Amino acid sequence: MELKLMMEKLGAPQTHLGLKNMIKEVDEDFDGQLSFREFLLIFHKAAAGELEEDSGLMALAKLSEIDVAQEGVKGAKDFFEAKVQALSCASKFEAELKAEQDERKREEEKRRLRQAAFRELKAAFST
C-alpha cells in the first residue's frame, strides 16, 4: 500500500498487478515486501541499466533522480527539499483529514450517548 501511495504521489500510478511485479523484481528475500535495502536496490539496478525501460521501477527511479553534474549541488538540494516539502504538505493534509474524522467520531459518540440518556428518561416517565 505504501508503494502504491508513493507511486501515485509521484504521478506514476500503478495497477495492483504492476505493483506486485515491481516488488517481485527486487524482492531478494521473497517475502512479498520491500525492505529499505531492497528499495535502494531499485536505484542501484536503474544506474546499472538492469531495469526494463517501461517498468514501474524504472519510472520510480526516473522520477526520483537528479543529475548533480547538470544541476549542481544547489539544484540537487533544491530538488530534494521540494520533494520533502511536497511530502510534508501531503502529510499535513492527511493529518487534517484524520483530525476531522476523529472529530466526527467523537460527535457521533456524544449523539449516541444523548440518545441513550433520553431513552432512559423516556422509559422512566413512561412507566
Automatic annotation (TrEMBL):
<feature type="domain" description="EF-hand">
    <location>
        <begin position="14"/>
        <end position="49"/>
    </location>
</feature>
<keyword id="KW-0479">Metal-binding</keyword>
<protein>
    <submittedName>
        <fullName>EF-hand domain-containing protein D1</fullName>
    </submittedName>
</protein>
<keyword id="KW-0106">Calcium</keyword>
<keyword id="KW-0175">Coiled coil</keyword>
<dbReference type="GO" id="GO:0005743">
    <property type="term" value="C:mitochondrial inner membrane"/>
</dbReference>
<feature type="coiled-coil region">
    <location>
        <begin position="90"/>
        <end position="119"/>
    </location>
</feature>
<dbReference type="InterPro" id="IPR040365">
    <property type="entry name" value="EFHD1/2"/>
</dbReference>
<dbReference type="GO" id="GO:0061891">
    <property type="term" value="F:calcium ion sensor activity"/>
</dbReference>
<dbReference type="InterPro" id="IPR011992">
    <property type="entry name" value="EF-hand-dom_pair"/>
</dbReference>
<dbReference type="GO" id="GO:0005509">
    <property type="term" value="F:calcium ion binding"/>
</dbReference>
<dbReference type="InterPro" id="IPR002048">
    <property type="entry name" value="EF_hand_dom"/>
</dbReference>
<keyword id="KW-0677">Repeat</keyword>
